[in-house]
Fold this sequence. Notes:
globular
Amino acid sequence: MSSTLSNILYSVLDLATVVEGKTPIDTFPNSLALARLAEEWGYTRYWFAEHHNMMNVGSSAPAILIGYIAGGTKSIRVGSGGVMLPNHAPLVVAEQFGTLASLYPGRIDLGLGRAPGSDQLTALAIRGENMNAAFNFPRDVEKLQTYFSADNVDSKVRAIPGEGLEIPIWILGSSTDSARLAAAKGLPYAFASHFAPAHFLEAIELYRQNFKPSEFLDEPYVISCINVVAADTDAEANRLATSVQQFIKGVVTGKRQLLPPPIDTMDGAWNYFEQEAVEQMLAYSIFGSPETVKNKMQAFVELTNIDEVMVTSHIFDHQARLRSYDIFAEVMKGN
Length: 335
């Protein structure tokens, strides 16, 4: 695969981040506004990530948000990045995404992860006595594939709607386990390098080496999710990026907060250990001007040989966030 940026597809991962002073009621229309512009700017997909019990993340119900975005756009693919499958019965997921794919044919993606998307106490509230469901992840993926298959027509349990529909399944991951599963099943693989960079290079190499062609995919296909904050100057991008740095500091310290406004400098806003932890989590992040974004993105693609990049941007100001995605699209198109 060529490492030219114009050959790489680019997409959006949205956590429906709730900013300070706002609520999810404000967040969702902003997501729709971004999705409509992303469609114009050439983005391929718009995915939502399932998270729970997080005051600063509004995407606890991806299927509902997918319907909202797909209904307000025309051509961009919309999907989950992902549905945390152990939280749900595979039949219910098949029915939900079968409904979405029936409403918006050819536009729905189903990305699947095995993590709870939350803390263990919340996972217990979701999964109850099914707390070991993650161990059934490979089997549950197969169940979903069966429900979507036209061959399931004679089964006593069928997904209506869903049966016979071509809904692409993606395996999401932040470790090598998911890479092995995606490779064995011949499915496309999306890695959460935006917050779990440690095993990224190892995982995608393992995936490519062990990939077995399937009816769904002839050769490996890798999406990498990264953090991007783009602005007209490096200085402005770095200032805007202090919001995501504060956001991730809340994750590593367990003191979550709504996405805060940017500050002039992080000096004094974190200690040495917090800075180290935040910068480790944000290892695959690009903050900068169009030229900086271009150079860093080119280096990243040459390092990883990815097929598609998925961008998440925790930016406090809605207009600045739109501008960031606009700049990134221009960079990827070679403009």
